[in-house]
Fold this sequence. Notes:
The chain is an alpha+beta fold. It has helices spanning about 25-40, 50-60; strands spanning about 5, 15, 40-45.
Amino acid sequence: xxxxxxxxTPAVGAEIGNVNLAALGAAEFAxxxxxxxxxSVLLFRGQTLSDDDLLAFSxxxxxxxxxxxxxxxxxxxxxxxxxxxxxxxxxxKG
Length: 94
């Protein structure tokens, strides 16, 4: 099934459907990159990515900027300093 691009608002944002970011071909990525240039913000629902999958997808757009420090220091998964964790979920460590 072909990738779908559904605009979220007239001004910015689109939802990308029918894609598995962990197994993305060059033609599929080209469609995503075109959508990114057109809509500036992309939403991908239902993706299950390992940290390695996330980095591989992200690096297809170019060199990654280092994550910023948070008030408790940089929050990254062990061994993945290029990943910046953003969450509203509290665990046993707060």
